[in-house]
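Before surveying the methods themselves, let us examine one representative protein, pairing a chain with its fold in token form.
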Amino acid sequence: MHFTSPAANNGSDPDQQHPVVFRSHRPGDIGWVIERHGSLYWQEYGWDERFEALVARIAADFIHQLEPERERCWIAERAGERLGCVFLVRDRELDHPLPSARLRLLLVDPSARGLGLGHALVSQCTQFARSAGYRRIVLWTNSVLDAARRIYEREGYRLISEKPYTAFGKELVSQDWELLL
């Protein structure tokens, strides 16, 4: 799928001449997801290597437990450069009467922020979840991730719980969100 940013200019910027493409993961992408999360969250939030380890576990579980008809990873790229990612997996964490998916590892590289890419990635998850027969999507995030929370709210997610905790070398507020489909 191709994505044209609503923030795209008149074509004078060479980067805007190439569309953003959403594709499935391929070899090398999972390592990039782990590295990029670790680096960015250290730079932007001061989260330590335990966050990178969590991302590595989530990514490894995705590969080892992948059910392609019900789960997917999207990599956003432009002209061969990775700009973002998101995962949708069957929710294996909660026992719930509705068939549930879990949105994981949303990331938009700083070079691509402001283009609407985060919202486009989350919308891909919603569309796929509906077509795969899910009735609900859940996600876990932290209150300090303002831009991501705004994307979730815009997509229709609602906050269902939050609690303070300590992780990744910081005092944080954990949040659980839900979207009924």
